Amino acid sequence: MKKLIKLIWLAIKSFWQFGHLVIAIAIIAAIAYFLGYPYLQAIRGSDSFYHLTNVFWVNKFFPKLPYWYPLQNGGVVPIWGYPHLTYFLVVIIHRLTSLSLISAWQVLGWLSVPLTAFGLYLFVATRLKNQTMALIGSVLYLLAPITWVWLFDWGFYTESVSYIFVFPTLIFLDTFLVKKNWLGRLSLFLTLILLVLTFLAHPATFFVTVVIGAVLIFFQNLSIKPRSFSRIAGKSVLTPLLLLSATLLLLGFIIFDFYSYAGRVSPAPAKHDKAVFLEGYPTPVGSLLGLEIIPSTEFKVGHRNIVVPMAIWLPAIAGIVAGLIYAPKIFGLGLLAAWPVVFFRWPILSWYAHRYIPFIGYVINHRTILIFIRLLAPVVAAFGIWGVFKLLIDLPTFWIKKGWLLRFRQLITVVFTSIASIGLAGYLIVFLANKPDKLWQPTQVRYGPQAFDIRDPFFKIEDKEELAKLKPEETGKNFMAYLQDINNWPRPKLVEELDQPLTGFSDFIAQHKDEPFLRVDVSPFLGGVVQTLNLESEISQINLYAITLSLLEPYWGYEQQVFFSENTGNTINVNNLAQWFGIKYLFLSPQLDFIDKYAADTDHWQEIDEVGIWQFSQPTELYSWTVDKPVVLVIGSTEKAAFEPVFRASVNGAYNYADGLLVQGKANVDDYSLAELKQFDVLLLFGYNYKSQSKAYRLLDQYVAQGGNLFISTGWQYVDADWQLDKAPDFFPVTDLIWSTDYGAGEQLVLEDQAIGGQLQVADFAPLAWNDNAWGISIPVVGKRDWARTVLSISGKPLVAAGEYGEGKVIWTGLNIFGHLNTYDFNEAEMVFLGNLLRWFGAGSLAEEQAQSQKLLVTREHPDQVDFEFQATADQPSILYWREAEFPNWQATLSHPSGAKEKIDIYRAGPGFMLMRLPPLEQGSRLQLAFKPGGRTYLGRILSLFALIILLIYVVIGKRMTFVINRFLTLFRQRFKKRFSKLKQTFDNEEDY
Fold first, then answer.
1. How many helices (H) and strands (E) does the chain have?
2. Quick check: helix, strand or coil at residue 463?
3. Fewest 10 Å CB contacts: which of 370, 542, 704, 857?
4. What is the rounded CA–CA span in Å between residue 417 and residue 409?
5. How confident is the model at residue 981, as a pLDDT?
6. Count of other CB atoms within 10 angstroms of residue 259
7. Pairing of strands 613-616, 605-609
8. Rounded Cα distance, 532 and 520, in Å
């Protein structure tokens, strides 16, 4: 009989729980649809077209996605810089259903909200064993504007979708911590797999989930008995580290490339200026908590809907208190939920944290930190609502410990807290909807996307004006009457295809989209065009919407400044950069861009469409093949970015693109062999160093003596290796060098050699001064060599000297002329002088390059491979300049008509593109550029596979795995000892012999 009663009770309990689950699913789906159906009717969110462009790109190549994306910024590797799981999911949904690609994108975006809410429900229901609390928490999550704003307003698609994985991860993690059997092992496996998926969806969400998991682990360890501080602390640190390590091993197939790519994009940690950093936390706490409205005139207005309503944060405070009494885990989650409020209220704490705590930036920034309050505040609030009534019952009945009274107390607790919690939650939602009264009007409920009025979501704006005049009871009647007409209910109108022009530039794009190597640049003021250009075509643009992927910094930033943020009154730098980058057309905003400077340069720029399309008259292709153009290797400090001032001076007119090609070299002269140095027509030493002075001097001496050209600048104190010398090497035009600040702005400069320096007035040079102090120079005490000529002197001392040494030429200057030019806004006379110096070594011709490039056939059938066919013979070495970003995974192979093949080195030239020095070529020679994964990628894949196998073995055999490992190690030791003994015996016998 007892078994029957237990069985009946279990059936009733299961039926109730299942029924509750069904009702909860229906409520979650209804609210999510009620508030989110506009997402199923149009493409919403400022970043949405960027993500949609990526989805189309993935769909084109799925399931084997190329590494290289050549359509923006000269090429990036998106899959190593921005995980693509979300895009893969969209494509899979599209291919498994009848939904179009755009419709699948819409559906998954909308589903990210109810699925996250349902995950929250399951987390509370399974881990806190309270379905009523779970339903309240999921409803509160759906009613917070912060839940919708990323998706609806900002279009942060991948981040929104990544939330789907958070609560399932926490469910399995908590199960693993509690269960010590096969279920615990399986939960560990699922926890790690879900962490991997979370990372692949969005790394920020992954790191937040790791932090939440670490807090759950800590508070779970508080229940360890007997309690020991060292034991709790050890497990609380060791367990998260092991889980994180296992996850990173499983992610090995991408994590090494991911962080290597991040290091190349941002090679050095950012040193934040305090004032600039604090502006990165723009969300006012009052706005976050719904206590103030950000005026539309304020720059923070974009954060106006990042709101956690009072109906959530008020009971969440009670939840933190209740967590101390009933559930330490909730207390910990409550502290995490409050974390954003603390850091937005006192952002200086965040600045210090970034400065002194490694890796803290992954979980503390103005976007990531909001995930804590968005996901956890509804959970803690639901617990707070329940905890209030739980406490009301426990206080007067705490003395009941056993017997039928205890069972009655438990029944009353369940029934009372459930009914009362639902009632209080409903009251808070309705009563606090428009609080505080001074801010929110009756139809401005702070729930849902863009603060929709959940009571009247179907009324148009003009109807709401009339609606505001009605009394509350009249509003309700009007609302109900409205809903009685089934035609007024919202219906999805999924976007099947983009069948209309997206921008005013669409006609031009359609006309030119079949030009395979056309490159344009789009003004950053036209962000919508930047997103949609590659949705409409495969035209290459220099602009990049996902700026954190750029491989061209800081030179892309400089290009953007020159083209779109700078009105110098001339276009010298614009024209040079257009040729360096291969830009043929510009898309400009007539209202926001500096149009006048383009309109004034009629020799080079012409407006061809009034929407803002300008054409460059002397464009280069994406490829250039040249025989006569000099290649200048700039050897200088990478840490000090020595190449940057050289490049800036060059494009501002000192050494035009037509004159020669600049290559970004290494920091040390002796990082190169003599054979490598001889690949370049000119060596320019600026901010340079060497590991061995004697080796470096020997290399340079041989290079110049055998016909090379050398430009040495020693005017950068402490950075140029030879800024002072007791005895200069033989190839220096001067005999020695000292550092001097005795020559100030009043000292007279004399141009002594016009054949090299040109005919100009040195009186027009900028002063040799720095903030009222003398500009320091490196200058000889004794004088110059017999073979050298003084080009520029100061007070009778050589400041620039030149001469022929062996078969080559040398120019030396003790003036940091590149720094001086950048400091004094590229003084025109100095620019002419520097250009004359460099052109003394020789100069190229744009016409020769364009004519030679016409003899090159370029084909590209896949983004990861480019093929070049040389349709003319080149009897001497030539240069191939390919205007896509230099990256270590690109490999160049030259195939001769005879069948012989050879590897070709790839150098980083100009703003960061690829330059290859080619040997003499026969007609019909071919060069293949191919992007190939390297050893790091394969190592990561092996580690991922190894980690997965070990994890699966652990799930299957559990603790026996320890026995297997020990047995394997024992056998290994025995065999090793046996073999070692034989080897030792053989060795001993040989010794005896």
1. 36, 26
2. helix
3. 857
4. 12
5. 64
6. 12
7. antiparallel
8. 14
Let me know if 300 is exposed, middle or buried by CB neighbors in 10 A (0-12, 13-18, 19+).
Answer: middle
CA distances from residue 130 to 414, 790, 956 in whole angstroms, order as listed: 9, 89, 32
In whole angstroms, how far apart are CA 373 and each of 208, 209, 426?
11, 13, 21
E strand or H helix that includes residue 632: strand 631-635
What DSSP line would sit under 69-112, residue for residue? BTTBTT-B-HHHHS--HHHHHHHHHHHHSS--HHHHHHHHHHHH
What span, in angstroms and rounded, lies between the C-alpha atoms of 887 and 931? 9
Residue 836, SS3 per DSSP: helix
Nearest residue to 820 via CA among 810, 833, 809: 833
Which token pair is 828? Answer: 């025109």
**Cβ neighbours of residue 526 under 8 Å, at least 6 residues apart?**
503, 587, 588, 589, 612
pLDDT score, position 455: 46
Give, in order, the Cα–Cα distances in Å from 481 to each of 196, 234, 561, 970: 49, 63, 57, 80
pLDDT of residue 978: 66
Q: Which of 827, 829, 783, 786 is nearest to 805 (CA)?
A: 786
Helix (H, G, I), strand (E, B) or coil at 940: helix
- The tens digit of pLDDT for each residue in 207-251 reads 999 999 999 999 888 877 666 777 777 788 888 999 999 999 999
Residue ranges in the chain modelled with pLDDT below 70: 1-2, 5-6, 9, 13, 225-227, 266-272, 280, 394-415, 441-444, 450-489, 745, 961-993
227 φ/ψ angles, rounded to the nearest 5 degrees = -70, 135
CA-CA distance, 89 to 105, in Å (whole number)? 9
Q: Of 154, 186, 164, which is closest to residue 118 (Cα–Cα)?
A: 164
Q: Which of 543, 505, 553 is nearest to 521 (CA)?
A: 543
The span from the CA of 668 to the CA of 235, in Å, is: 48
CA neighbor of 582 nearest in space, from 551, 610, 555, 616: 616
- The end-to-end CA distance of the chain, in Å, is 90
Q: Which tokens belong to 227? A: 């309690």
Q: What is the DSSP string of 157-182?
A: HHHHHHGGGHHHHHHHHHHHHH--SH
Residues with Cβ within 8 Å of 180's Cβ and at least 6 positions away in sequence, in order, are: none
**pLDDT at res. 101:** 95
Q: What does residue 810 show for φ and ψ, rounded to 5 degrees?
A: -135, 135
Residues in a beta bridge with 711: 684, 811
The DSSP bridge pattern shows strands 901-904 and 890-895 to be: antiparallel
Under DSSP, the state recorded for 431 is H
Model confidence pLDDT, tens digit, residues 919-941: 999 999 999 999 999 999 999 99
pLDDT at position 968 is 62
Write down the H helix ranges in 299-365.
Answer: 310-326, 328-345, 347-356
The pTM of this model reads 0.89
One-letter amino acid of 65: L
Q: Assign 619 to helix, strand or coil.
A: coil
Q: How far is CA 729 from the centre of its chain?
A: 47
**How many CB atoms are closer than 10 A to CB 850?**
16
Predicted local distance difference test score (pLDDT) of residue 487: 64
Phi, psi of 15 (to 5 degrees): -60, -40
Give me the DSSP letters along 197-241: HHHHH-HHHHHHHHHHHHHHHHHHHTT-SS--HHHHHHHHHHHHH
Instruction: Give the whole-angstrom CA distance, residue 892 versus residue 880.
Output: 11
For residues 246 and 948, the answer to whether their CB atoms sit within 8 Å is no
d(C-alpha 214, C-alpha 241), whole Å? 9
Task: Map tokens 């300008």 to a residue.
Answer: 614
DSSP letter at 756 equals H
